[in-house]
Amino acid sequence: MKISKKIVSPKILLTCSLAMTVMPQLAQAQSIDCFQNLNFGSIIACPATADTVRLSPTGGTTSGGCSSAGGSSLRGRCLLEGEFFPVEIMQVTLPAATATIGNGTSNMDITNFDWGTTAGGPTTTVTAFITTVDLGATLNVKAGQPDGVYTGSFTVNVNYQ
Fold it and tell me: Which value, in Å, is the radius of gyration of the alpha carbons in the chain?
């Protein structure tokens, strides 16, 4: 049995992930481990139209238009541990602005960082001694985005309240 696949449109496959750098504001008695990087999976960009790909903090990707998202996308995950008793409140903040990822010759912007909470948004408040928080974001794909592996980083801040 012979299987052949013909690609009709000039779509480009790209893969991107984001490594998270964590910056505890108080070094004493807290631990932050972002053990799962934000990974948008494999994306086929539109040849003539810019588009967005949304990675949900609950997992899975959706395209805003003609782009196609697939492959092994992963939401970001961070483990937060406090060492105070009774439990102290921690405020966890993602970038409110844009992070940029690149492949050495081309860039894409990441926007709309979002914690997996009912309120959403770039800031969440945690009251547990140990908890895992999930995050998502939106990838802004340019028209005719060159293929490649795109990487970058952003900072997660944690403050005791």
Answer: 18
